[in-house]
Structures are given as C-alpha cells and as structure tokens.
Amino acid sequence: MSNAYEKYYVPEQSPWPFVGAVALFLIAFGAGHLVNEVTRDKEGYGSYLLIAGVAILIFMLVGWFRNVIDESMTGLYSKQMDRSFRQGMSWFIFSEVMFFFAFFGALFYARLIAMPWLDGASNNAMTAEILWPEFVAHWPMIKTPGGTETTAMPWQGLPLYNTIILLTSSVTLQFAHTAMEQNKRGQLKLMLLLTVLLGATFLTLQGYEYVHAYQDLGLKLDSGIYGNTFFLLTGFHGMHVTLGAIFLLVIFLRILLKNHFTAHHHFAFQAAAWYWHFVDVVWLCLFVFVYVL
Fold it and tell me: What is the tally of structural domains in the chain?
C-alpha cells in the first residue's frame, strides 16, 4: 500500500462568494418588490434591482469559473481535487432530482389524492358536498371553482417534436463524448455543436408552445391546478435546459477557441454531459405524466 503524499490545492481567499451573495440578495429582493409592484399596479425599483442582481451574478460566474479554468489548466489540481469535483457535481444533480421530485409529488398529490377527495372518495362525501358539490374528478381539471375554463395541451405536435429533439441531443452528446475519448476533435466539435443547436431548438419550440397555450388554448398559470403544475414543471425544466445549453456552449467554445480538454482530462465536459442527460430524463417523465397521461 502506497503512502505517497498527494497535494490538495487550496486557493487563496476569493471575493467571488461575497459577490455571489450580493447578487442573490438583489435578485430575491428585486423579484419580491417586482411581484408586489405588479400586483398593486404601481411603479417601483424592483425591476432595476432584479436586473442588477442578474448582471452581478453573471459577472461572478464568469470571473469565478475563469479562475477555476486557469487553475485546472496550469496543473494545480490533483486526483483528490478531481474526486471532489465529481462528488460535488453528483450531489448537485441529486439535489436537482429532489427539486423535481417535489413538483412531481405535488402533481401526483393533486391527481391521486386531492381530486378524489373533492369528489367524495373514501369518507369525504360531506367534504365534497360542502366544498364543491358539482365537482367530478377528472384530469386534466380544465374548469376551476371560479368558472375559468381552459383546454388541455395535447401530447401530439410540439411536445412530441420536442421529445424527439431532446432525445436526439442525448445521442449527439454521447457521440461527442466518444469522440473526446478517442481524440477525434473534428467529430467532437460537430457533435457538440449539434447538441447545442438541438437544445436551442427545443427552447424555441417551447416558447412557441407557451404562446400557443396562452393565445389559443386559454391555458395560463392561473388556470387552476392543471395550469399551475403544467407551467411550473415545464417552466422549471426549460430553465434547466437553458442552463445546460449554456454549459455545453461554454465547453464548445473552450474546445473550439482554446483547444481545451484531452482524452484523459475532461471532467468539465463530462459534468456538462451528466447534467444534460439528467435534463433529458426529467423531460421524459414530464412528457409521460404531464402530457400523455
């Protein structure tokens, strides 16, 4: 058993955590004020604080990741540091799994527990008579207690196309990963670029789907529990696709402009691939439980 000492790089004190904390404070404070201003129909400074917070957050991310990239490329990181990065990314993805698990839990609770109770299931006959006598348990619930009616989003058309696009992007990303391990730089660049373009196409079609939902179907965020769960689940997933596409775009630019990564040292690329495959799996669950069923 080897007792060889392995160094562990400890960076100098950094201002980036403090800058990030300021950015998140401004985002939270500004978003809260903006919501209050919109609901009360008055002007204020919430939007300016929100924009400033987002700008500072982007500045922090660019600066912090630039430092990490420089440290990695100059050989300061050891195998132990590499394991720390892998563990950190694994726990981050696990936290994202729990994030979506909570929203899926809300969806299943509404469909399998709350709706049958409102219809008098189990010993809730009197509850149904008092709260909503004419209610009939049926999903999607396209009519709210206030009388608002909407139309369910069908799974055919844009949702199906987006599913095919996202699954295809996983295939192209896997080809890019294989090309990385085989040191085929041309194939790597092409497949990675296709993945980013497919992600951008997915987001464009989802934006068009939202416009179609609002203008043609009357499906909005305030359209009862169905509208809430639909836009929260698909909206947060779209946000994650956006982050994943940016992640992959940065990796692509590093490969294209700086010729970074080798067949044996490419964890940043691998972390982006993990995240993208996770986003694809979440979409498959969304497509089945939100659109098809």
Answer: 2
pLDDT tens-digit profile of 179-199? 999 999 999 999 999 999 999
Residue 4 DSSP SS3: coil
Query: Under a CB-based contact definition with an 8 Å cutoff, are residues 136 and 119 in contact?
Result: yes
Q: Across-strand partners of 143?
A: 149
In order, the DSSP letters of 69-117 are HHHHHTT---HHHHHHHHHHHHHHHHHHHHHHHHHHHHHHHIIIIIHHH
Give the domain range for residue 5.
Answer: 1-77
Q: How far is residue 203's CA from residue 241's CA, in Å, rounded to a whole number?
A: 8
How many residues are recorded in the chain?
A: 293
pLDDT at 198: 96
State the sign of the Cα–Cα–Cα–Cα dihedral 247, 249, 252, 254.
negative
Q: Residue 126 is part of a domain; what is its CATH number?
A: 1.20.120.80
Q: Is the domain of 183 the same as that of 155? A: yes
CA distance 269 to 176: 10
Which residues of the chain have a pLDDT value below 70? 1-6, 144-147
Longest dimension (CA), the chain: 75
